[in-house]
Write a structure and sequence with these properties.
YojJ-like (1; 2 domains; two-stranded antiparallel ribbon; 9 strands; elongated
Length: about 280
């Protein structure tokens, strides 16, 4: 019979392996489809190269010193700097794991109707849904409002001659419009979708979805296309029903707290028509 100590030892080895595997899987899944994934693979390549080089340059004392004493220790700080947005979003999601926020069906319908009308008139707009991660930093410098979400009101706010038509409207967790003229963080300038450079309005929508778990609806001023930004991804060319379907899927679904870090909570946008992601051209 195996010794009890041996069984416990191998049991802890197994638990250790499962935890490490789960952590690696979660990091890779969290970063999949983002630019940070390429950066992560680059960091891993540098570490592997440095590790192999150290074994083969024992007589090159200066190079060995630079690798062991300078390069490898500094990579830890570099990783914190490079992946700062991802760490911030991960910790913010961890802090909101037991928080549940549901957007009302009427709110979704009003936003979809407003987006449809704004699309017809080719009026540029960004409508942001606040979710578990608060948007206080974004709304602090905006014009504070406390109004029921209404299609006509949203159209009025984005009317070209309106003083508040620039920037974004924010819908809070209470299903009310809490701010207008909100300035959003921009995604990187060289952010492309299907080879097309995004304009400022779409970069702002992607930017807020990268830094928080917010969802942003965008209407292009140039083409009238309706887009949806979530988790740093953009799906474009939606019609009213597709937009309503996407918002219902994302905002109305209930998740157990432990599932919010799982596959269902990550980057995937609901389909029916992810093919619509192939938008026409880059627009503002």
């Amino acid at each position: 019979m195996p010794n009890q100590d041996v069984i416990v030892k191998y049991l802890f080895y197994s638990v250790d392996f499962v935890i490490i595997w789960a952590m690696i899987y979660w990091v890779l899944y969290f970063l999949r489809g983002t630019r940070s994934a390429n950066v992560l693979f680059g960091v891993i390549a540098v570490l592997l190269t440095a590790t192999i080089a150290v074994d083969y340059v024992e007589r090159l004392t200066v190079l060995r010193f630079l690798l062991i004493e300078c390069l490898i220790p500094s990579l830890g700080i570099a990783i914190l700097v490079i992946f700062q947005p991802e760490f911030r979003r991960a910790f913010a999601q961890a802090g909101s794991i037991f928080v549940s926020n549901r957007t009302g069906q009427e709110t979704i319908d009003q936003v979809a109707e407003a987006a449809a009308q704004l699309s017809i008139t080719r009026t540029g707009a960004i409508i942001v849904f606040e979710r578990n991660i608060g948007l206080t930093d974004t709304t602090r410098s905006a014009v504070s409002l406390d109004a029921r979400v209404d299609s006509l009101l949203l159209q009025s706010l984005f009317y070209p001659n309106s003083p508040l038509h620039d920037c974004a409207v924010v819908i809070g967790k209470n299903n009310r419009i809490v701010a207008a003229h909100a300035v959003l963080p921009l995604a990187e300038e060289d952010y492309f979708v299907n080879g097309k450079r995004l304009g400022t309005r779409h970069r702002a929508a992607v930017g807020i979805s990268q830094e928080t778990d917010a969802v942003a609806v965008v209407v292009s001023e140039e083409t009238g296309l309706i887009s949806l930004a979530k988790k740093g991804r953009l799906i474009r060319g939606l019609n009213t029903e597709e937009l309503r379907f996407q918002l219902r899927t994302i905002l109305l679904e209930r998740k157990a707290p432990w599932k919010r870090f799982g596959k269902a909570a990550e980057l995937g946008l609901a389909t029916p028509d992810e093919a619509a992601e192939a938008g026409k051209d880059g627009e503002a």
